[in-house]
Amino acid sequence: MLSVNEHARLLGTFEIDRLFKLIAKAFAIPSDEPAYPCGPVLECPACAGPWLHHGWVEVFERPREDAQDGLHVSVQGMQAQISTDIRDNPSSRRDGLLVSFFCEWCCAQLVLHIVQHKGQTFLTWEDRHNDTACGPDCDRYPALAT
Q: Mean pLDDT over all residues of the chain?
């Protein structure tokens, strides 16, 4: 098992910073306020609100394309789990990332999928809405309702 520090060293902070800049740019909403010193704001796909809080993160790394084994790192709060089980990798052939989000405005519970395929990177949202966590204001959540 790798420690969190060893894992961070393997991933490299430069690559992580570059990835988050790509995500912010891809899902940016324009802002007239200069109050965002880190760049564009990621918006909620359900309500377009700019107050998304990220939660757990999962990283899936393969040693080569189509490999059946690899590294799976799951981080939630100050806890990290490292395994070689990549069955939940969002990419069927390459590396993948999952980042959970919660929207302050509309109670959306979302997972951002970052998937590599044939030299391209795809960003998609998954709705993990839970009615019991939402409360009486759930009618504010029409965009992702099933």
A: 75
- C-alpha 141/C-alpha 144 separation (Å) is 7
* Lowest-confidence segment of 14-23, 51-60, 100-109 by average pLDDT: 14-23
* Pairwise CA distance, residues 92 & 113, whole Å: 12
Give residue 67's domain range. 4-140
- CA separation, residue 115 to residues 89, 90, 91, 95 (Å): 9, 6, 5, 7
Cα(83)–Cα(89) distance, rounded to whole angstroms?
A: 12
Single pTM value for the model: 0.66
Total count of domains within the chain: 1
The Cα–Cα gap between 12 and 102 comes to 26
Residue 146 lies in a domain: no
Task: Give the number of other Cβ atoms within 10 Å of residue 65's Cβ.
Answer: 12
- Summarised one tens digit per residue, pLDDT across range 62-80 is 999 888 989 999 999 999 9
Question: H or E stretch including 72?
Answer: strand 71-76
How far is Cα 111 from Cα 54, in angstroms, rounded to an integer? 9
